[in-house]
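Q: What would this chain look like folded?
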Amino acid sequence: MSSWALPGAELDELLRSFRHRAWRWECQGTYRQPAEAEPWRRWRAGEPDDLAWLRPWLDQVAAATRAGRRFARVRVFREPPTEYQRWQLDVSPANIAAGEDVRVLTAGRARALGLPNRDFWLFDEDRVALMHFENQQFAGTEIIAAPEEVNRYRTWRDVASDHAIPFMAYLHDLTQRSR
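A: My prediction, written as structure tokens:
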């Protein structure tokens, strides 16, 4: 069974109520979320960012990890990274400090592994929130709970996790290559 939900409504509930693990496959090269527009503009202008706009997410991750629940994601990075992804290189250490396990796969490696080109969250091994985007903006989710379909997403998660490298190692390698 799958159903559509308005942008953020059901996804926010799943992000609050999962019991053990929330895992994200993030494969868009650029996201144009309204809440990120001003922070991204400041980054592009070289202005400082106190990450106040990200604080609610960081607090949610920190509270969940203190309670023994896990947040993890694998991000697919283009080579070279898009401008948005270069911004994420500066922002992501805050996610990690909050307790999120962030890993990276290159786009070429993701394609070679047969991984999907659609973003999704996998919650507690039994629910998928397939994310839909329009013009690089989040447009809604399709909730998938049928065991045979969820199993396919678990397999993709396992493959991606097995081949991705920790974000900080990716950042170090990228920095070394750009010297």
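Residues 2-177 form a domain with the Endonuclease; Chain A fold (CATH 3.30.870.10).
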